[in-house]
Amino acid sequence: MTYTVTFWGTRGSIPTPGPATSRYGGNTPCVAVEGTEGQLVVLDAGTGIRGLGLDLVAKQNGAAKVEILLSHAHWDHIQGLPHFKPFFAPGNTVRIWGSRQGTASLEAILRQQMDPAVFPVPLDALVTDNELGGGGQYDVPVSWRRDFVTFLKGVDLLIHDAMYTPKELEQHRGWGHSTYEEAVTLAQDAGANKLVLFHHEPEHGDKEMDGLVAAARKFAKTRGGSLEVDAAQEGMKVTL
Ligand SMILES: [Zn+2]
How far is the CA of 22 from the centre of ligand 1 (A)? Predict the structure, then answer.
């Protein structure tokens, strides 16, 4: 089975359009994974999902079947949903999967995002055959990292947050993001084939990103092994 992975949005936290980010991209997270039979799984619904939606409408409007997996419900991972065109054409089927956040259900979170006080179109205006899937709740046991390595063992491709350099992390501890060193270490521990650094820091322009990728590759090399390291660029495709 061959899969095509397309990066429609690569930026963390907030969109960063403009000439300084034109190569690595300014749209917030959205990755499409397509199988050869037309299966489509979309990872996160940042502003990058808008371009994917336009593409789907152009190619298969009324027949699109889309599974959207939300890693979590922070703005930058859901803010593209109200602008996902396949929602507005009958015949398309879109299912959204994600975890509740604390006591707030995924449906409540998405309704808030489209509440009339902050958005002109309510969630109920979506005409697609839609479904909201309950993804359960994430637990974080003490053994989470060991469990995570086991879960990832031998993956072909690991897409991982690498928002910070080790120096920047010192100013942002507890913000929920990783360094490229943590991403490389995890990928190597799991025996991944290829690592794609993702969820880029808004202050990192293309020049800073080139430096970050070079540093990550150097770090991987000093630890040995054959891990391939890249950083996500908007429009980039990886075939598995
Ligand atoms: Zn984020």
Answer: 19
Cα–Cα distance measured from residue 69 to residue 201, given in angstroms and rounded to the nearest whole number: 22
- Is residue 148 in some structural domain? yes
Whole-number Å distance, alpha carbon 188 to ligand 1 midpoint, is 23
Residues 228 and 159 in one domain: yes
Say yes or no: 104 and 18 in one domain. Answer: yes
**Planar angle of CA 97, 94, 12, nearest 5 degrees:** 55
> Could you report the per-residue pLDDT of 174-205, keeping only the tens digit for each?
888 999 999 999 999 999 999 999 999 999 99
Under DSSP, is residue 164 helix (H, G, I), strand (E, B) or coil? strand
Q: How far apart are CA 106 and CA 133, in angstroms?
A: 8
Q: How far is CA 192 from CA 122, 158, 180, in A?
A: 42, 7, 15
Is 226 part of a structural domain of the chain?
yes
SS3 assignment, position 80: coil
Q: Is the pTM of this model over 0.90?
A: yes
Same domain, 8 and 101: yes
Alpha helices for the chain (secondary structure H): 49-60, 75-78, 106-113, 144-152, 166-171, 180-189, 206-222
How far, in Å, is the centroid of ligand 1 from the Cα of 12?
5
